[in-house]
Every structure is written in C-alpha cells, then in structure tokens.
Amino acid sequence: MRDWDFDGQLAGALRISGWLVVFMCLVLVSQPKDPVAGGFLAGTITGMWNAYFLGKRVRATVGLPVPKAKASVKFGVFLRVAIIIAVLFFVYRVSWFSLYATAAGMFITPCIFTCGAVARSLRETGKKSA
Questions:
Q1: Residue 128 in domain
Q2: CA 20 to 30 Å from 119, out of 53, 93, 95, 125?
Q3: What angle (nearest 5°) sits at the alpha carbon of residue 93, between those of residues 88 and 97?
Q4: How many CA atoms lie within 13 A of 89 on its CB side?
Q5: What does the alpha-carbon distance between residue 8 and residue 23 come to, in Å, rounded to a whole number?
C-alpha cells in the first residue's frame, strides 16, 4: 500500500473547488443580484482559503516536536474558526448574500477532499482483496 498523498489530494480538492468558483462567477454575471449564488461563492472561497492554509499548517507541523506541533495545530484551528465566524458575521450583517448558502459553500472543499480520500481508500482496499 502506498503512502497517502495529502498534498495531491488537497490540490485536487482545491482545483475542483476553483472550477466551481469559476462557474459561480459565471452565474453571478448572468444574475448579479442572486443572494444564493453570491453566498455560495463567498462560502466556497472561504472554504478554499481555510483548506489551503490548513495544508500549509500541516506541512509546517510535520517536523516539529510534539508540544510545539500541538500548539501550532491549536492556533491554526483558532484562526480557521475565527475566519469562519468573521465571514458569517459579515454575511449576516450585509444583505447581499444568503447566510445559509454561505455556510453551505464553506463545506464544499472539505467535502470534496473527504470524498476523494474515501474513494482512494476504497480503491486501495479493492486492490488488496482481489
């Protein structure tokens, strides 16, 4: 069994999310006042931002001693949660975006990443049992 390619999995999830952002931008060009499309776009971009910096944090944490790695991960979680709260607060205060669509958009990149990891795991399991 090969090692898991975290960076490749993350790059693939970000690439798919990027195409979704392009599609949502095209939707917004055709319907500029649509709050659902705007919220979904804002949420997807926020999810991509968080996933990208999570990947950077994981790569930086690999060589650290355990106490420093724990502190680094805790700080990274705090920053990501703060960004999510700030974006949701901004969307709540501004009526341009749908709050629910923004929250749903934030889950797109992690869901793509997870589905890709599950699919790869199932492929690896299928190869072993055959």
A1: no
A2: 53
A3: 65
A4: 6
A5: 23
Q: Does residue 125 sit in helix, strand or coil?
A: helix
The residue whose two tokens read 């971009």 is: 45
| Interatomic CA distance for residues 67 and 56, integer angstroms | 18
Helix, strand, coil shares, percent, the chain, to 5 = 85, 0, 15
How far CA 86 is from CA of 21, 44, 46, 74, 122, in Å, comes to 20, 15, 10, 18, 37
Q: Quote the number of domains for the chain.
A: 1
In order along its 130 residues, the chain shows pLDDT tens digits of: 467 788 889 999 999 999 999 999 999 999 988 899 999 999 999 999 999 998 898 888 888 898 898 998 899 899 999 999 999 999 999 888 999 999 999 999 999 999 998 988 888 887 766 5
Residue type, position 23, single letter: F
In a domain, 130, yes or no: no
* Residue ranges making up the domain that contains 11: 6-122
The residue among 65, 49, 55, 62 whose CA lies nearest residue 17 is 49
